[in-house]
Write a structure and sequence with these properties.
The protein is of the alpha+beta class. The chain contains 14 helices and 17 strands.
Length: 535
């Protein structure tokens, strides 16, 4: 009887879970900026639970680990508060759940946590010729996997004021808040004074209606630096560099261990392959001996008017000796070994020549979009996807996608070509395009010198991760050339470009290599920083 009751209860709970239907009404954020560069963020999300009952949702998109305030994090349903549990599922993903399932009806979820905007790179010092020392704030709230009626961000600054109402002209003339043009164009904004502990602090509202699924709401503005105390900025920068160095060493250690595992795996596969070949050889020998015995026994019978010649076994080779792959200039330069930074810089200058973009800065890379109607190659389109449409700032992770796509396309075009012949052909092609004084340089210097010669006004663009190191280099894995890219963690996407691996080991090693690479890369490739997934 108890088993029957448990089974019925399980069925009822399952039906309730699977019948959950929700709508996200709106999301509002409260962002409090402190003088020391730290802050407090509160997310308030309103959900319409149409059917079933709701526990919570998945919340993600953090660059660093947030520090949740559980006393100020709770759910509200029918004017009652319910505590929340916030469970970390991965580096950036959290499961937010009410201790009591709620619904149907409207429910609000309030999440409060502290962040270090300075450490995360969202806040820092800059200088304006007109305004002097400024503090920039460059941040965006989480994207949501649902459309919503509106999203509102209230930002409270540490700037003291003497009244509660302001108009735009007062703010603009005073220079207390300077916003980017895209904010004035895309959002509604309102400025006001917020009372707190017998003082009034300058605050403002960023508001937008009818947001689509996964729509971004980037926010960037500037405040006078005199209202902040960032004397510890140098120590923070050193800490960021230290963490980046630790992450770099960790990545190198992971790569080293992965290479060792693949080498060990390859040795085992070669052993298994040798054993398999030995078994096949023994089988063939036994079959041949048996056939000879049969032929000898039946040699007196005239089955055919002439001797039978067995068909030859032809082992095909994918590579065609002397064949040169057809590549355009960018693909050819990538193939023969141009440095990646110079290659990406070349793509940028190609787009600038076509009047598609304007290069505003090389360190850090900053562009302005001019024309979206031009006919572009796949790598030019991918390059444009590496920059935020609103701010023109670099989206560093998309550089990997550009390089992977380029490596994949080059690999597909060279799969049956003679690699040495192809490399020699394009090296000589670019050598002839150089001035006579440069034609005697080494093969590995041809590509980079060609780019500098083609663009006399050339200035290298620096593609780096958060925080520029003193030497201008990056902890972000920018690969120096085509070969180093293939040896990187991107090899899962372009492993078939290795001639020896493709020709000799493809059949024997495919399954094992796929298993090893898939498990190593799955979590990095599969994650997506989007909040939602009501459950």
């Amino acid at each position: 009887m108890r088993k029957l009751i448990s089974f019925v209860f399980f069925i009822l709970v399952s039906i309730s879970l699977f019948s959950l239907s929700v709508k996200l009404n709106w999301v509002e954020e409260r962002v409090v900026l402190r003088q020391d560069g730290k802050g407090v963020i509160t997310y308030i999300s309103s959900w319409d639970i149409v059917s079933g009952d709701m526990c919570g949702f998945y919340f993600e998109g953090f660059a660093k680990e947030p520090h949740f305030n559980m006393k100020l994090s709770y759910a509200v349903f029918n004017n009652k508060k319910y505590p929340l549990t916030i469970k970390r599922l991965s580096r950036t993903k959290y499961d937010v759940c009410s201790t009591t399932r709620v619904g149907p009806g409207e429910a609000k979820f309030i999440i409060t946590f502290a962040v270090d905007f300075l450490m995360e790179g969202n806040l820092g010092l800059t200088k304006s010729p007109e305004r002097g020392e400024l503090v920039y704030f460059d941040w965006a709230p989480a994207q949501w996997d649902y459309p919503m009626e509106h999203q509102a961000v209230y930002i409270y600054t540490p700037i003291p004021v003497n009244k509660k109402k302001f108009n735009y002209k007062e703010i603009f003339d005073s220079g207390l808040i300077l916003t980017e043009k895209f904010m004035n164009k895309n959002y509604k904004m309102d400025y006001f004074g917020q009372p707190f502990q017998e003082k009034i602090f300058l605050s403002f509202l960023v508001y937008k209606q009818n947001l689509s699924r996964r729509e971004k709401l980037p926010i960037k503005f500037y405040l006078p630096a005199k209202y902040f105390n960032l004397s510890h900025l140098k120590a923070v920068e050193e800490e960021i560099k230290r963490r980046q160095e630790e992450e770099r060493k960790l990545r190198e250690e992971i790569k080293r261990k992965r290479k060792e595992q693949l080498k060990k795996l390859a040795k085992n596969n070669i052993l298994y392959l040798n054993v398999l070949l030995a078994i096949i050889f023994i089988f063939i020998v036994l079959k041949v001996r048996k056939r000879r015995k049969v032929l000898n026994e039946w040699s007196d019978l005239n089955w055919l008017s002439s001797e039978w010649v067995p068909p030859k076994v032809v082992v095909p080779s994918a590579r065609k000796k002397g064949k040169v792959a057809e590549l355009d200039d960018v693909e050819a330069l990538f193939f023969i070994g141009i440095s990646t930074n110079n290659l990406i810089s070349m793509i940028a200058y190609m787009l600038a020549d076509k009047k598609v973009i304007r290069l505003k800065s090389s360190k850090p890379p900053l562009i302005e979009f001019l024309n979206d109607d031009a006919e572009l190659s796949y790598y030019e389109r991918n390059f444009l996807n590496c920059f935020d449409r609103g701010t023109g700032r670099l989206i560093q992770e998309n550089i990997k996608a550009l390089l992977k796509e380029l490596a994949t396309r080059v690999s597909e075009k060279t799969w049956d070509a003679d690699l040495e012949a192809t490399k020699k052909f394009y090296i000589e092609k670019f050598r002839k395009l150089l001035p006579a004084s440069l034609r005697n340089i080494a093969d590995n210097e041809i590509a980079d010198n060609y780019v500098r010669h083609r663009y006399p006004y050339y200035e290298r663009l620096y593609f780096y991760d958060e925080g520029l190191n003193t030497n201008g280099e990056s902890d972000f894995p920018i690969y120096t050339d085509f070969d180093s890219f293939l040896k990187s963690e991107a090899c899962h996407s372009a492993c078939f470009t290795h001639d020896a691996c493709h020709s000799a080991c493809h059949s024997a090693c495919h399954s094992a290599c796929h298993s090893a690479c898939h498990s190593a890369c799955h979590s990095a490739c599969h994650s997506a920083c989007v909040s939602g997934g009501a459950h």
